[in-house]
Amino acid sequence: MPFSVTRRRFLGLAALNSAAALGLTAVSATPAVAGRRDLPLPRSAPAVVIGTGYGAAVTALRLGQAGIPTVMLEMGQLWDTPRPDGTVFSDMLAPDERAMWFTDRTEAPLATFLWLDVVNRNIRRYAGVLDRVHYGDMSVYLGRGVGGGSLVNGAMAVTPRRDHFAEILPGVDPNRMYEHYYPLANAELGVNEVDREWFEHCDSYRYARLSRKHAERAGFRTEFVPSVYDFEYLKREEAGDAERSALGSEVIYGNNHGKRSLDRTYLAAALGTGKVTIQSLHEVRDIARQQDGTYTLTVRQRDVNGNVLARKQIDARYLFLGAGSVGTTELLLRARDTGRLPALGAEIGQGWGTNGNVMFGRANHPHDVTGLLQSGMPALGIDNRDDPVHPVFAEIAPVPAGIETWVSLYLAITRNPERGHFTYDAATDSARLHWTEAQGQPSIDAARALADRLNQANGTLYRRDLFGDTRAFENRFTYHPLGGAVLGRATDLYGRVHGYPNLYVTDGSLIPGSTGVNPFVTIAALAERNIEHVLATDILA
Ligand code: FAE
């Protein structure tokens, strides 16, 4: 499916490319400052957006289009400058320091293979692209860099079922979401679908066809999953006509090709308005409010090795928090509990969930091969969402190891009703997540109901060698953190933070712990809805 380059996106892409060529950390397409090596952080801006993930990118584009000068502050780096070998990112089989955010060793979700510690590698501490933040019984994977989670995610662009959406966000009109904002977000994100005919005979999805066969034997339905990975590019990868990325074991540490990450879509378009500037390697530490209602942010600028280069301040009349569920929640909790924004309420930090994430693997029979070539971008899921007791959407995940592993892997999205919460820990000046192992049990129960049926129907067993010990189900991490500043509770129904005019939340924190499917399309669509209203009623009125 062609994804056309608009003039605005073209201008933004050009700005990103020239920033990459010059090795800049700030990007702007504004003629007066574009390409300036020392583009300083202004002392004030009408609008500041924290973060550059889905909610932030949507918001910045619409602010820029409305003519509002907007500064985006991103703690990660701009991932556009290739190394001498032409790569921007490292692959999963040979990760280097670019893989992970300031850690000595990579921490992949599959910790072991045949119980051997062969997956992870020692690396140098560096501003890498994937972070794994540990909170006792739960750890959260996050993207770091201009584009946030879009740089590291599996590209699955799934619109949830209407009934589930209405259940989780009852204050939002589903008609308008499904008729307007979801289609809008899908179009801007460049969502496309795999060619069904090609899918049936390609090597790239042999593993998915095998899992589909096993699912059908167990009486389950499967569903194709739309994606922001360019499936035409993938076809060319398999044909040997294009550099391999999804077929080159690239996913969680970034894709060198093929992926329509936000820097190619919303952020490029935002830059192309000429009103938006992105400052990378700028982390917001504190938010305060002046008597006249201006927000003052304290920002720490670092280099890729973690050295602090400067501490700066920037004032904003309108402040949008798009630092993701974990980042936004931490900023708000810190602001409340250090007394800078004392009127923030008790709802801040509440309503957090894992989107019911749980991973498991099945051991295939020797004749059931998954293939040496596996697309890192899933294209199929088992849809058992109608199950009245254990509704599950299980994406059929690859194991792109380059060898036959006889593993069928799944990331199940279950409807775990448990919710965690964050508190501020003054000793470490950070947010602490309260989530126990027992709260993960409903996810395992639901995934087990599906997986047991798969195993019984196919005479197969669980793989117990993949998660560092002998467990069959791994739910000590999530890819899909949601909540912490829930819409209609911590904010009004458009993301306006209670108690503070002109302060808005625009990311996954708004969603109370579950979307039933992969969340980024919902985050983007909700951000489209909210910014349209905020522009019309608060900013342009
Ligand atoms: P997010 O994309 O996390 O962006 C937040 C940004 O803010 C990041 O760039 C941060 O570095 C930055 N930031 C944080 N704190 C600060 C601060 N203090 N100052 C400045 N910058 C800051 O937020 N979802 C799907 O729908 N489909 C998938 O296939 C999928 N696969 C995934 C695979 C992996 C490995 C991971 C980690 C996630 C996956 N997700 C997937 C989840 C998806 O990427 C995630 O829900 C969205 O990225 C969340 O969007 P937000 O706008 O909330």
Automatic annotation (TrEMBL):
User: Which protein is depicted?
Assistant: Cholesterol oxidase
**Gene Ontology biological-process annotations:** cholesterol metabolic process; tricarboxylic acid cycle
Which Enzyme Commission number(s) are listed?
Answer: 1.1.3.6, 5.3.3.1
InterPro entries, sorted: Cholesterol_Oxidase, FAD/NAD-bd_sf, GMC_OxRdtase_N, GMC_OxRtase_C, TAT_signal
* Pathway stated in the Swiss-Prot or TrEMBL entry: Steroid metabolism; cholesterol degradation
- Keywords, sorted A to Z: Cholesterol metabolism, FAD, Flavoprotein, Isomerase, Lipid metabolism, Oxidoreductase, Steroid metabolism, Sterol metabolism
Gene3D superfamilies in the record? Cholesterol Oxidase, domain 2, FAD/NAD(P)-binding domain
In this chain the Glucose-methanol-choline oxidoreductase N-terminal domain maps to 143-166
- Claim: Lipid metabolism is one of the keywords in the record: yes
Keyword flag Repressor: no
Q: Which cofactor does it need?
A: FAD
Under the GO molecular function aspect, what terms does this record hold?
cholesterol oxidase activity; flavin adenine dinucleotide binding; steroid Delta-isomerase activity
Residues annotated as transmembrane: none
State the family it belongs to: Belongs to the GMC oxidoreductase family.
